[in-house]
Amino acid sequence: MDMTLPRNAAGQLMSLDGEPLAVQLKRQQRLKTVRALLLIAPLAVFLLAVFILPIAGLLKRAVDNPEVVGTLPHTVVALQDWNGKAVPGETAFAALARDLERAHADKTVAQAAKRLNMEIAGSRSLLTRTARHMPLDPAAGPLKTQFVDIDERWNDPAIWHAIARNGSSYTPYYLLASLDMRVGDSGQVERMSADESAYLSIFGRTLWMGVVITSLCILLGYPIAYWLANLPTRKANLLMIVVLLPFWTSVLVRVAAWIVLLQSEGLVNSGLMALGLINEPLQLAFNRVGVYVAMVHILLPFVILPVYSVMKSIPPTYLRAAVSLGSHPIGAFWRVYFPQTLPGIAAGGLLAFIISIGYYITPALLGSPNDQMVSYYVAFYTNNTINWGMAAALGGLLLLATMALYAVYSKLVGANRLSLG
């Protein structure tokens, strides 16, 4: 029976219903694509609603600056042509009087006052005190003189520079402050003085603590994973329950348990003193040692599981073959076995590092003020001072560092796969 498909005049294969076969195949492919998109549409909408949009909204707050331009719009316009060398003229004072009168009536002075107070201490009291004297009487003399009589700081160009710098709805202030920089009166970006700088050292501390914690997790987790991978399946499964046990306990409970163990009169110091190893209690809690111990305990399973998974996929015959060919067992391990476990080490290390630099509870409870990481200050600005701009800027820079690290990891792992291939 001849099953050859017919062809049309152009030489195209035709289906049995007389339609070009290529057109029919493309339509079927489009239908499959549409069905696949419809299947993932609920997940895509969910991720967009609860993940992407909130993060985008938070990052927007890092550059959002509506307070001053919304409260003092006429003043901002009047300062556009200001040379910045001396106190502006009557036009700017008239615009400021108009804006403060309206803001006082609308009860919005506090918004601009709070924003300007971030740059110049005392701006809050300056604006609120001046707003209470509004409206001014133009017949009583120059407005500049009346403003200076209310508060002499209106004769200082610094406050006017602060208002002019905030003349846009978007500002680099929070991002620059997170990097210990600012925009000076000349409009140029400059580094803050040593007394005002803090965040670069906090970021450095965060990254360093993440490296130490990740290194300790790898050093402790690798031999445990190797031991589990070479045990009989039944014993390995039983011991794996011990590895997973921390996941079944609240982080807060685990930190509280470490406080009990590591404090001056805790079980660790009591045991060491009972054995005669120390004469006085060691300071193990409320410092960096306690933070390292508790966080390694929390993050160790995140390293063990990826490394164990990779090790289980490596045939044990590779090592035996290397030894049978004359290699020393230790040399065979480092040359044959260890390189194959690097993807698991990289995955576990990356996971532990990313989680560690974003941790808040453990350093806050077990660390000293000098052991707090970036996440502590994000929580501080969010919950205590309600400064969403600084919180978003610090969180955004931490997110950027995490994404950069993941990009480097992906590139290295991809290059490693290509070299192995």
TrEMBL record:
State its location(s): Cell membrane
Please tell me whether the keyword Cell membrane is annotated for this protein: yes
Membrane topology for this entry?
Multi-pass membrane protein
Family to which this protein belongs: Belongs to the binding-protein-dependent transport system permease family. CysTW subfamily.
Supply the PANTHER family for this chain.
ABC TRANSPORTER PERMEASE PROTEIN, INNER MEMBRANE ABC TRANSPORTER PERMEASE PROTEIN YDCU-RELATED-RELATED
Q: Which InterPro entries match?
A: MetI-like (IPR000515), MetI-like_sf (IPR035906)
Annotated GO CC locations: plasma membrane
What are the leading ranks of the lineage? Bacteria, Pseudomonadati, Pseudomonadota, Betaproteobacteria, Neisseriales
Q: Where is the ABC transmembrane type-1 domain?
A: 203-409
Transmembrane keyword on record: yes
Q: What is this protein called?
A: ABC transporter permease
Q: Which organism is it from?
A: Microvirgula aerodenitrificans
Q: Which residues form a coiled coil?
A: none
Among the GO biological process terms of this entry, one is: transmembrane transport
Could you tell me the keywords of this UniProt record?
Cell membrane, Membrane, Transmembrane, Transmembrane helix, Transport
Per its UniProt record, what Pfam families does this chain match? BPD_transp_1 (PF00528)
Transmembrane segment boundaries: 36-59, 207-229, 236-260, 289-311, 345-366, 386-409
